[in-house]
């Protein structure tokens, strides 16, 4: 599948995929909270999630990748 290929009936196209840096942590936390409202980690709060995702990006054994649309809006991530 090409990166810019339309995925089913989705209205978005992925413009770029990047490794997440610490400056994007707040966007990752917001996306997490918006999409996992009832999840256990969401109930632990923003500060916990910031700590959690910072640990992921600072580890040599893990990675955090984000997908952005043409307007540079975060549309998804995986860690």
Strand content: 15-25%
Mean of all residue-level pLDDT scores: 85
Identify the strand order in the major beta sheet.
1-2-3
Which regions have little confidence, pLDDT < 50, spanning 5+ residues?
1-7
Spell the H/E element sequence. EHHHEE
Number of strands: 3
Give me the number of helical elements.
3
Distance between the termini: 21 Å
How would you classify the helix and strand content by structural class? alpha+beta
Q: Percent range for helical residues?
A: 25-40%
Largest sheet: 3 strands, antiparallel
Question: How does the SSE layout of this entry go?
Answer:
Blueprint: E1 16-19, H1 25-35, H2 40-43, H3 46-58, E2 65-68, E3 74-78
Helix pairs in contact: 1-3
Record keyword descriptors for this entry.
single chain; alpha+beta; 3 strands; 3 helices
């Amino acid at each position: 599948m090409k990166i810019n290929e339309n995925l089913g009936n989705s209205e978005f196209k992925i413009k770029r995929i990047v490794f997440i840096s610490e400056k994007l942590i707040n966007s990752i936390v917001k996306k997490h909270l918006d999409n996992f409202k009832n999840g256990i980690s969401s109930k632990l709060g923003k500060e916990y999630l910031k700590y959690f995702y910072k640990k992921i990006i600072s580890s040599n054994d893990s990675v955090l990748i984000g997908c952005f649309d043409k307007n540079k809006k975060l549309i998804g991530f995986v860690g």
